[in-house]
Design a protein that fits this description.
Blueprint: E1 21-25, H1 34-47, E2 52-56, H2 62-66, H3 78-84, H4 88-91, E3 93-96, E4 99-102, H5 108-114, H6 124-130, E5 138-142, H7 149-157, E6 160-165, H8 175-188, E7 194-200, H9 208-224, E8 235-236, H10 245-249, H11 257-260, H12 265-285, H13 300-306
Parallel strand pairs: 1-5, 1-6, 2-4, 2-5, 6-7, 7-8
Antiparallel strand pairs: 3-4
Helix pairs in contact: 1-12, 6-7
The structure holds adenosine-5'-triphosphate and magnesium ion (MG).
Length: 307
């Protein structure tokens, strides 16, 4: 595994004994790489021997389809857990070695209105996931492109939020609303929630705009560093997922990138993202985290070599 060390210690909850990492992958902007990130990072973590649950909170059910499961025939999933008190452990389907899916389907569109009069409707997913938390190492939640009740359930259940960003024109439009929502959730429902990673997806370093957007985000995060806001410890994950056509092709075959084209750039990038994420867990649990600031322009190779 690559020798990454975490750039900071923003993972306080590991010090409280629990090694489970529950990560909501969200951005209300559509098509930025949320689902691609959850599928391939979850698959890579599973290949590292971690027990991983992938949760499809999106009525589009792209995560479910991408993992090769037919949403119409997948049995109970997120919808049934949220609205019919289905048992979470019994709703998980083992889709690959070490990788379980809590499937989504189009019925989720109605969940929001069905739950409108239910007391505590934003904590249903958290309570359900708590019933299995001793059995898994990672739970990754793929959120829909909105900030409604489904995303709220994810933010309430998660300890961490990852925000994939596609560095293009208006990439940061809506960022303020997203962070405001996260702030409200931390104040009112889930004080443990932190934004831990911003992942640049579909990155093309030849395009000036990509580095401009990256610089804007870095500046924004730097300003937050001395504050106590939920993203004060957030970093741009030092692996940028390059634009790679194989990543766009893999979903229609119901395959992860490692099954579809294991040697392509997309597979290399997501493998390295997973190694980075997992190195944070290892470092935190071993209490060995010395702050290491990874330089802005270093490539993945540089970082691995230095660590
Ligand atoms: N690095 C990449 N290179 C090329 N294509 C990509 C890459 N990442 C994702 N894609 C493609 O871009 C499209 C959007 O990606 P994805 O579905 O992961 O985004 P999303 O944020 O989950 O979208 P939505 O908001 O609709 O849920 C998909 O067709 C996907 O296959
Ligand atoms: Mg998606």
């Amino acid at each position: 595994m690559a020798g990454f060390r975490p750039p900071n210690s923003n993972l306080e909850h590991y010090k409280q004994g629990s090694l489970l990492r529950t990560i909501a992958v969200l951005n209300q902007k559509g098509g930025v790489g949320k689902t691609t990130t959850v599928v391939n990072t979850a698959a890579a973590l599973a290949m590292l021997g971690q027990k991983v649950v992938a949760v499809d909170l999106d009525p589009q059910a792209h995560l479910t389809i991408h993992l090769g499961v037919d949403p119409k025939q997948s049995g109970p999933g997120v919808y049934e857990v949220l609205t019919k008190s289905a048992n979470l452990a019994e709703s998980l389907v083992e889709v690959r070695p070490n990788l379980w899916l809590l499937g989504g389907n189009i019925d989720l569109v109605g969940a929001e209105s069905e739950l409108v009069s239910v007391v505590g409707r934003e904590i249903i997913l958290r309570e359900a996931l708590e019933t299995v938390e001793d059995s898994y190492d990672y739970i990754m939640i793929d959120c829909p492109p909105s900030l409604g009740l489904l995303t709220l359930n994810a933010l309430t259940a998660a300890k961490e939020a990852f925000i994939p960003v596609q560095p293009h024109f208006l990439a940061l439009q809506g960022f303020g609303t997203l962070l405001q929502t996260i702030t409200l959730v931390t104040r009112r429902i889930n004080p443990a929630l932190k934004v831990t990673g911003i992942l640049l997806c579909m990155y093309d370093k030849r395009v000036i705009l990509s580095s401009e957007v990256k610089a804007d985000i870095e500046q924004f995060l730097a300003k937050a560093r001395e504050t106590d806001c939920p993203w004060s410890g957030a970093r741009i994950i030092p692996v940028h997922v390059r634009r790679n056509i194989k990543l766009a092709e893999a979903p229609s075959y119901g395959k992860t990138i490692f099954e579809y084209e294991p040697k392509c750039n997309g597979a290399e990038d997501y493998r390295t993202v997973a190694e980075y994420i997992h190195s944070q867990t290892g470092a935190e649990s071993e209490r060995q985290a010395e702050p290491v600031v990874i330089g802005e322009d270093e490539s993945v190779g540089d970082v691995v070599e230095k660590a």
